[in-house]
Amino acid sequence: MNNETQTHFPKDFLWGGAIAASQVEGAALEDGRHWSTADALPYGVFKDVVIPPPEDYLKKDGIDFYHRYKEDIALFAEMGFKVFRLSLSWSRIFPNGDENEPNPLGLAYYDDLINEIRSHGMEVMVTIVHFDIPLNLALEYGGWSNPKLIDFYLHFAKTLYERYQDQVKYWITFNEINVTLEAPFNGAGIQGTKDTVDKSTLYQAIHHQFVASAKAIKLGHEINPNFMIGCMVANSPYYPLTSNPDDVMEAMKRDRETLFFADVHVRGKYSAYMKRFFKENDIKINITAEDLQIMQENPVDYISFSYYMSYCATANPEKNNQELGNVKTTVRNPYLEISDWGWQIDPKGLRYALNQFYDRYQKPLFIVENGLGAVDELVEDGQGSYTVNDDYRIKYLEDHLKQVAEAIEDGVELLGYTSWGPIDLVSNTIAEMRKRYGFIYVDRHNDGTGSLKRYKKKSFNWYKNVIATNGESLYENK
Q1: Strand 379-380 and strand 238-240: pairing?
Q2: Which positions ≥6 away from 195 have C-beta within 8 Å?
Q3: Contact present, 57 and 461 (Cβ < 8 Å)
Q4: Cα separation, 69 vs 202, whole angstroms
Q5: What whole-number distance in Å separates Cα of residue 215 and Cα of residue 218?
Q6: Is residue 406 predicted with pLDDT exceeding 60?
Q7: Which of 199, 193, 188, 200 shows the shortest CA–CA distance to 142?
């Protein structure tokens, strides 16, 4: 290996994978856990709260990670993970969200889980809230529209910080915090949809999350100054559909819907364009001087984001074909292919997104979700077992990772990359197993049947080799 090929990825680059508690653990009411907002979304999008969930509700048992985590962590270690991102279920530790004392059985589970991860030499990255707050906080308090949730959240965060201060270095305050705009119940525990929830209520809830995030950063750094605490956004950059200035301005407007969230986390204030937006849309938010001070004094240490696709923007969307996306729809980009779920596949968009964020903030970045959801077919592997020949997933990830390397060469400071769903899990937005992301196949199906046995896909050894060579295998024999 020559010096030139050694420069694609930094030598300390953190390769790994990412999951969410509500999508893998199962054991919905085991060991003192109570219902969460994730449990109240049996079909992935909010219509009516359904408690208890129907019997065939897949998240109730997930992939049984709660009982099988040692087997799964061993498989991640076999791939060579340097870091593993997970969330800790709030309702497993504080079942109703407003208790003074945590559930000891919930903490004991996470003690064992984190110890198991670290025993395999992996860094632990914890998402404090990943679309998963105690249902009681949504039904009795109105979710994040209520400022009381700030203190409940900080109590939860403090419990985690103090207990795992010597075991966890990387923290994320909220998963894809900007999704609240599109899915108020999923993101903030507010009952309704983006079309029915009052915009002032929606942005007030988001402000409460900003304040909670800043206070959590302050608290975390007081407990352990070496903590790296970041924000996370769902990052899908917009391209103008044409060079028509109206389309260019529309793309800028749409991009700002995402950039706004990173702006506040990094700069600690509301940009002028958002103040104009609030004024023109008669959005009124209670923002105190104390809020602004705590936000300005406690910026994030890094910015993390998910990237699955890019979007297109036009001033005349009704005249163009629409495609599904991550939570929202987009105008079809005629130059891109689409996935089984209609998501536009755009590897170069990831390089664009990395440069856009780094140019704007000069903060370390971390890609904490990226992957391809697809329909996988389990076939015999010729050795008495089964596998999935997922060359389409390998191509997707390879194409994206090569663009990540280009962004690093551009000068972007990137801490690491955790693929989404390194093991098949229950999807959040549509709550099914048919949409699979993993390097590991889980024998469970939409009707709830299956042995839950794990099988390595073809991509398992491919990713193992990528990590072992620090990305250089991407360039072998190409």
Answers
A1: unpaired
A2: none
A3: no
A4: 36
A5: 5
A6: yes
A7: 188
Q: How far apart are CA 418 and CA 439, in angstroms?
A: 12
pLDDT single digits (tens) 289-327 = 999 999 999 999 999 999 999 999 999 877 655 555 555
Separation of alpha carbons 445 and 403, rounded Å: 33
Tokens of 269: 């204030």
Catalytic residue list contains 369: yes
Secondary structure percentages of the chain, helix, strand, coil, to 5: 40, 15, 40
Residue type, 139: L
Among the listed residues 369, 406, 413, 476, the single catalytic one is 369
pLDDT of amino acid 57: 81
- Give Cβ neighbours of residue 38 (< 8 Å, ≥ 6 apart): 22, 23, 59, 131, 132, 428
In whole angstroms, give the CA distance from residue 85 to residue 14.
11
- pLDDT tens for 65-79 read 999 999 999 999 999
Classify residue 465 by burial, with Cβ atoms within 10 Å: 0-12, 13-18, 19+: middle
Domains of the chain: 5-473 (3.20.20.80)
What residues contact residue 272 under an 8 Å CB cut-off, 6+ apart?
none
* Total residue length of the chain: 478
> In DSSP terms, which residues pair with 324 in a beta bridge?
329
DSSP single-letter state for residue 111: H
Identify which of 233, 225, 214, 213 has the alpha carbon closest to the alpha carbon of residue 169.
225
Which of these, 258, 144, 271, 270, lies nearest to 197 by C-alpha position? 144
174 has which bridge partners? 129
Question: Which of 35-49, 117-131, 217-231, 439-453 has the lowest average pLDDT?
Answer: 35-49
The whole-angstrom distance between residue 204's C-alpha and the CA centroid of its chain comes to: 22
Cβ atoms within 10 Å of 420's Cβ, excluding its own: 22
Peptide bond into 42 cis (omega under 30): no
